[in-house]
Design brief:
By secondary structure, the chain is of the alpha/beta class. It is built from 6 helices and 6 strands.
């Protein structure tokens, strides 16, 4: 993919969508499906991957756009491959939603890659000094994603190092080195 090492399972998709963003984690009523729909519509040349298990009634399958892929279920081994295929990690949560306990761990794994992480409505997920972009409205989320997708060069290297360092301080030192 764009800035990442891009482990692609489907080479024709890579040609059609040169960059990829996505959510990794369990599905639930905390996910803002409408925001995911707006992301896909705003970035038609960016592949939006939704990786995880989605219980009935909370599924992003209703996002019927050509640049959206939902991948279910995913083994732990496949999860790492999907993690490495994304250029930006999205955590589009609804306001005041009760988030799953593993959210902090998953965000830490994403930070360990050094790639941008974007969260919405994140009070209490991470300390306020976390090197993540946050947004409290759909329009701010879209604007922050646009900035993250544009990250390159020295700025990308500097920000990536900062994210990996932060992840290692969260206890993800081995994973930060591995990724």
């Amino acid at each position: 993919l764009g800035g990442g090492s891009g482990v692609w399972f489907d080479r024709p998709l890579q040609a059609e969508f040169p960059q990829g963003v996505g959510y990794l984690g369990p599905g639930g009523d905390w996910l803002d499906i409408e925001l995911l729909r707006k992301v896909a519509a705003s970035f038609p040349k960016v592949l939006l991957q939704l990786v995880g298990e989605f219980p009935s009634g909370t599924s992003p399958f209703s996002i019927d756009l050509p640049n959206v892929r939902t991948i279910v279920p995913v083994s732990r081994a496949d999860r790492l491959s999907h993690l490495l295929s994304l250029d930006v990690f999205l955590f589009p949560f609804k306001a005041e939603a009760r988030l799953p306990a593993e959210t902090r761990r998953i965000v830490g794994q994403c930070l360990a890659t050094g790639r941008p992480v974007l969260l919405s409505n994140v009070d209490g997920v991470l300390p306020t000094d976390a090197p993540v972009a946050t947004a409290d409205t759909h329009s701010k989320f879209i604007a922050a994603l646009d900035r993250a997708l544009s990250e390159s060069g020295a700025r990308s290297v500097r920000n990536g190092a900062r994210r990996r360092n932060y992840a290692s301080n969260l206890g993800w030192k081995r994973k930060a080195v591995e990724l």
